[in-house]
């Protein structure tokens, strides 16, 4: 495993990017631009937590795929259901 | 979730009992607490998979009778078309009978019946001594039983749910179904889904991690294959149903307005959530029946199934495709034509693998030599019925035809041919495994009489419904010229129902007085359950089963191979004629055995715990207690107080039994890792935790999907976040991120065996979690004073309910954190820190969810 210092660095990155998300909102960008930036930041934070805090990076890849399947199912439902309204 | 990981919670405790892998020295809990099968106590404490299997089978048959009696009531009513004033059952009572019949049969009979066999047979087929988490297995059963009792209670609370088994919105909200019993029925389903989720995690961990050496997935028997695919589908599909049911419960009890008529696309939201679950559910119900068909076909044709590999591939395809066909149940809703067309195509696509399976079964019969025993008759009948059910379903999959058929008896007839066709195979399975379970043979003549009556009754009941297809579904008034067909169906219904009396008599009598059977009463049965005695010993096998030489043999603990009997159980070299019949090993996995080991008293795992029962009782009381809530308030007076007291008592019982379960010394089955693809080298507890989290992803996905869908229907950018200030949310993000960090520090401290660091970090996590909740409470209070609450509009409903679900996860995590802190204070987790690690996985997941809730509900 890795050192406490490394975990601290991850924590700082997470902390800062959460702040950035709110700053983006207050920056007065176009709605969908801000939307894109904020969601990408959220996804990036989620990947960091899963990869390092949940140490998926050092686990067999099958566990990552397992969670990925759940994610794909949830996204398929959301996207297809929303599309069906168009 | 360390509480759901009972086998691991006691590593390195102050008691000083270390769980050593394969540690036979830990015997202080073994044996003396485990009464024999004749004792009533046994059945309340047992965690053994075979006992649990029997409990499932018996309980599910009880629900078959209950659902069947409701069906009889409907068929009596349908003897003649009736106007509302001249009915036998009052109109609403009829609606209740229709709804309860559907719900009971689909949820409380069909799947649990199949899972009785799965519990009993699958560990034997895998070469495992029990499921991975035996207490969780008992918990699944007790949650199932209590959910059924809760459903039963709903009849006496002004009437049960009456809006059909699909529970379509907006009929499912109190405006249209105001009885308390209707809420209770929904809560009973919630409890049932909890049982299913626990069961899915347990089976998936077991089936992936605990197969005997050499038993690769490719070689796994077909019944086990069908169960494996079933539990995978269950894991994700039931999580979506749980989301739907929790939202519905909130609408009914707390006053949220997701499905209210004035909410944008509320009715459509329900159909999406329900059918995303509902279509995989068709295969969840049918696959075990398919597995029984495959096993019984192989045994009684003496022939390995034709195209075994392709049969498996076809099943895997169906399991995946089942998640992309759900909108064919929605062709008459307002979804757009493009998506209807797309789902018509995927629906036709899913019928193709089934064609392959049907032809494989037919061809197996042609190539084999059939013996017409009772089990074979039932599965053969099931195949015929399924072919009819499948073909009539293709009509419904076509958009244009569905416009005509939707809401008619064509649908009713179609899905009864499929579903009850599946039941037919499972009844065959009951006869097939009866000698294994009881050690005695049933009466073959009475079995055949049962089949004849059953098959005639079935077709007399359901086939006329195709002819009378213009009858409107769920309605007791119909065109008078259709009456003769309905009268035929009613007669068939009684023949079908009464035929079960023959079975009950036969099996009950034979269980006590039938001829005793050997290990394997069926010639050519090749799967491993037939390699052990009937019934099998408590821990299934003497020695460790292995397939490393291409057949089943057993290794004694003293490392001496005890078998190698040359006589193959599959009868290869047997005398039966017929082209290629039984002259070669049937499957890659043939069983060869000669039990040479005398039964010795081996010290081993635990088999008894009362806490699954008590925990389920507690959950039952909570849900019963909250059932009369409306707009988050109990009714006035004594009644309301009694309900509230019940809920509080239930909460106490649940919490107490969770802690007791965590502290109880309990040792899961000892096993040497054999085949464990794709999770080899990962601890059972960790695999179980990740599987649970994957289902939780879908649960939150359902909630977030409901929010996104509703907001999309409302008009995305016209929808403002409920809190006007994102800063409290940002503060909570900071708090939660910090608490994740402290959990990481806790694990680091545990790895360094640093007790103070561990306690401090866990304690800090707890304090931060409390801080998160306090901050949230202040924010909610503020919003409440602004006049915004759950029931204000759908915008506030989604905000409070989704963040509320997350808060509930935080609270559950805090209870575990408190438990861990207390244990760590007393010196636990320094030797074995897995509990801390698994708690961390859960806690980080809750953190990740918040990372998405925060922008979606506070910023955007």
Automatic annotation (TrEMBL), chain B:
Its main location: membrane. It comes from the Archaea. GO terms for cellular component: membrane. The keyword Transmembrane applies. InterPro entries: Cyt_c_oxase-like_su1_dom (IPR023616), Cyt_c_oxase-like_su1_sf (IPR036927), Cyt_C_Oxase_1 (IPR000883), Cyt_c_Oxase_su1_BS (IPR023615), Cyt_c_oxidase-like_su3 (IPR000298), Cyt_c_oxidase_su3-like_sf (IPR035973), Cyt_c_oxidase_su3_a-hlx (IPR013833). Residues 571-581 have a biased composition (Gly residues). The chain crosses the membrane at residues 52-74, 102-122, 143-168, 180-204, 225-248, 268-290, 310-329, 341-364, 376-401, 407-433, 445-465, 485-508, 610-629, 641-666, 687-709, 729-749, 756-778, 798-820, 841-859. SUPFAM superfamilies: Cytochrome c oxidase subunit I-like, Cytochrome c oxidase subunit III-like. Residues 609-860 form the Heme-copper oxidase subunit III family profile domain. Belongs to the heme-copper respiratory oxidase family. This is Cytochrome c oxidase subunit I.
